[in-house]
DNA sequence: GGATATATTGACACATTGTCAACAGATCTG
DNA sequence: CAGATCTGTTGACAATGTGTCAATATATCC
């Protein structure tokens, strides 16, 4: 709603980014079905058709927002202190849980699962994101040399479901403490690694 | 689309159920955003306003469909053979994975997660359902006497995220076998139980 | 300063949901 | 059996939101 006064005409990249930022703010704080393009346009101080000009359909814009929100930068293995794998995993999770605690709204809304037959294009982006997070974890802990990658990745992605679930219990339901989350994630990750390296 | 010829006038309960069944079929096989009320009405061989008459808004109908799809009947502990807890958990998971394999579409669409800011009313129903499934598992394995319920339930609900994730990897991505899923679920469940009973 | 390119917008067309008064089929009553 | 009554059902309308396109406004170039 807050129309920020910007020059009447901007270079495409800037205008696009400006609209995207307005969309991120709105989608982050409200159920995405309750946010319409008119609102986003108003927040960006721009006419509604411009959204379609830069992003195509509303869903395309939504997907761009998802990509931005879900993105996680890589962590180099040497940044993680500790000798044992369990110890280094604990440090990594501490970092991530710190990040989650810092902007809980994003993660809360992300952990809210959708229903049957969610939009396939949206679902694809979320799977992409799950895979990215899992790969980041594998890289940061250098897990590749512990188990074959084609077994490891899907198992860690699945384990990400437990991560989302426990974070939701922590931040939304408040039925788990942060320490509970850390503990259960470290322990189950160790278990999952055991299963992954179990050649059968 | 297939208009089944039914009497022009039905008792409310029957008409309501008929509409609900048509909605279930459509929501089950297609992304729910691509199904509109006109289609549901046509499939039920009925005029569109009747849907609102019986269910209120489209979302209310959708939520009713979710409740039906997600429902899982209880399993009595004595139905599960085996001495050790691990063994009985394995049997329970076998039963559930059988059920999942029998109607994969339902579970595939359910495991597809939604995005940020999913509809709060819909999210509430899904959380309700997650809690129901977790409670069923706790009851069937009689886990109550192993850990305090207020710690156990949230942890098992969170573990349900891993269950959804691994089932998705199995049925949709085909990166895990059914046996992988069974193994990782049994082992992580044991780990989670350990964390739950860990008084600290 | 005029011509050209393109960022921006107002107005329109279309789809979908939700509402309401009117219609129609069943049951009751005399 | 005819009329009254109740309620399941529907056609028509209003409201909201998305996507398109020709027209307009602003910057840049010669």
Looking at this protein, list some descriptive labels.
200 residues; mainly alpha; DNA-binding; homodimer; elongated; 69% helix
Q: What do these coordinates show?
A:
- The structure is a homodimer of 200-residue chains.
- Chain A has 200 residues and is mainly α.
- Helix content of chain A is 69%, strand content 0%.
- The first copy, chain A, has nine helices and no strands.
- The longest helix of chain A is centred in the last third of the chain and has 25 residues, at 149-173.
- The N and C termini of chain A lie far apart (59 Å).
- The mean pLDDT of chain A is 91.
- At the A-B interface, helix 1, helix 4, helix 6, helix 7 and helix 8 of A face helix 1, helix 4, helix 6, helix 7 and helix 8 of B.
- The first copy, chain A, binds a DNA duplex (30 and 30 nucleotides) through residues 8-12, 15, 36-38, 46-50, 52-53, 56-58.
Briefly summarize what is shown.
The structure is a homodimer of 200-residue chains. With 200 residues, the first copy, chain A, is mainly alpha-helical. The first copy, chain A, has helices at 12-29, 37-44, 49-55, 58-70, 85-102, 104-111, 120-140, 149-173, 178-197.
């Amino acid at each position: 709603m807050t129309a920020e006064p910007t020059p009447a005409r901007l270079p495409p990249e800037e205008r696009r980014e400006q609209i995207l930022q307005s969309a991120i703010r709105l989608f982050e704080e409200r159920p995405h079905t309750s946010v319409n393009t008119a609102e986003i346009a108003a927040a960006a101080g721009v006419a509604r058709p411009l959204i379609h000009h830069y992003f195509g359909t509303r869903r395309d814009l939504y997907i761009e927002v998802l990509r931005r929100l879900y993105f996680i930068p890589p962590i180099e293995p040497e940044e993680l202190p500790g000798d044992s794998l369990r110890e280094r995993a604990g440090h990594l999770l501490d970092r991530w849980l710190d990040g989650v605690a810092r902007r809980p709204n994003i993660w809360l809304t992300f952990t809210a699962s959708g229903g049957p037959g969610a939009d396939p294009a949206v679902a694809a982006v979320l799977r992409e994101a799950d895979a990215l997070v899992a790969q980041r974890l594998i890289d940061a802990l250098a897990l590749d040399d512990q188990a074959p990658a084609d077994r490891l990745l899907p198992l860690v992605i699945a384990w990400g479901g437990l991560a989302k679930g426990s974070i939701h219990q922590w931040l939304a339901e408040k039925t788990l403490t942060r320490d509970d989350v850390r503990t259960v994630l470290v322990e189950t990750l160790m278990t999952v690694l055991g299963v992954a390296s179990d050649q059968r």
